[in-house]
Amino acid sequence: MDIPLSVLDRSLVRAGQDPGRALRDTVRFAQQVEELGFHRFWVSEHHGVPGVAGSAPTVLAAAVASATSRIRVGTGGVMLPNHRPLVVAEQFGVLASLFPGRIDMGLGRSVGFTDGIRRALGVGKDGAEGFAAGVRELLGWFDGGQPDYPGVHAIPAEGLDVPAFVLAVDGGADIAASLGLPLVIGAGRVRAKTLEAVGRYRAAFRPSDRAPLPYVVIAVNAAVAGTAEAAARLQLPEAWATVVSRTRGVFPPLSPPAEVAALRLTERESGYLAEARASQLHGTAEQMAAALRTLAAETGADELLLTLNTHDPADRLDSYRQLAAAMSSTAPDAVTAG
């Protein structure tokens, strides 16, 4: 492929499933996309969400890495405010020791989205404010310890080279630039905002031992099918679950697209649905290959991180298979996806 393509899987639960099935699907999906030639496979961290099974990303990453052999495995990401940096360093040290040369450490600054979850995690609404300091402490454990904790060492992390990435949420681009780390940022509903953040990151980037040059990973929700309309239907269940989370406070399991399409939406729900779908890309394989190449050219992306959560896992695999094949072929001139 002319630009590295990677995968983010949030381990979403499908209607009629239990969370265990969703986690097993994640591991199986990692094996499948490895065979398709994707570069990385990342998992995420969510707490107390009925429709999301991925609550312990380093544990799930271990299962994924043990079930695969070549693809890089990591987190997109571990939410650092929820954890002590020493413990995170130890967890990634174990992963990197068991699977040398294959582990990535994606880091985010989000906290739980309800008061109850935040209390259970022991984090307040302002927990994200210490994210930059937390990243510095975390990286320090890999470099040999922290002056605030003399005599303490992160075993087996100390001395290991585990690539660290910063998720660009609420100032993450500026933090990544100041620390000299790669940036992961969503394509976004408003492309101008993404371009502004990426430009600011590159302009302020301070070279480091971990990243001598800026490195930008653009995350995008992308679907491929035989027609653009069919591809758009694949993304409908996740978009609807987002609407439910916005209007009822709970992100539910994914429903079949036909059920979602048959719903009679309120004006408010229709607005949220349009907003959820605004950043999704969909089309035929050729259309999507062109759209992703255009996105990479506009943003100067070094890598694309793709996500897609369908009700039927077979539809998702077919989408990735078609896209991998199209991205390995000659790029078409026209961009018609949307």
List the helices and strands and how they pair.
Elements: E1 5-9, H1 19-35, E2 40-43, H2 57-67, E3 72-75, E4 78-79, H3 85-98, E5 105-108, H4 115-121, H5 131-143, E6 164-167, H6 172-179, E7 183-186, H7 191-204, E8 216-224, H8 228-248, H9 257-261, H10 267-277, E9 281-283, H11 285-299, E10 303-307, H12 313-327
Parallel strand pairs: 1-2, 1-10, 2-3, 4-5, 5-6, 6-7, 7-8, 8-9, 8-10
Question: What is the overall pLDDT average?
Answer: 93
Assign a percent range to the helix content. Answer: 40-55%
Secondary-structure element series: EHEHEEHEHHEHEHEHHHEHEH
For the largest beta-sheet, the strand count, sense and barrel status come to: 10 strands, parallel
Principal-axes shape call = globular
Terminal residue distance: 22 Å
Q: What is the tally of beta strands?
A: 10
Number of DSSP helical runs: 12
Oligomer: single chain
Please tell me how large the radius of gyration is: 20 Å
> What share of residues are in beta strands?
5-15%
Uncertain runs with pLDDT below 50, 5 residues or more?
Answer: 330-338
* Sheet/helix structural class: alpha/beta
What's the gist of this structure?
The chain has 12 helices and 10 strands.
Structure report:
The protein is an alpha/beta fold. It is built from twelve helices and ten strands. Helix content is 45%, strand content 13%. Strands 1, 2, 3, 4, 5, 6, 7, 8, 9 and 10 form a ten-stranded parallel β-sheet that branches. Strand 1 (5-9), helix 1 (19-35) and strand 2 form a beta-alpha-beta unit. The longest helix has 21 residues, at 228-248.
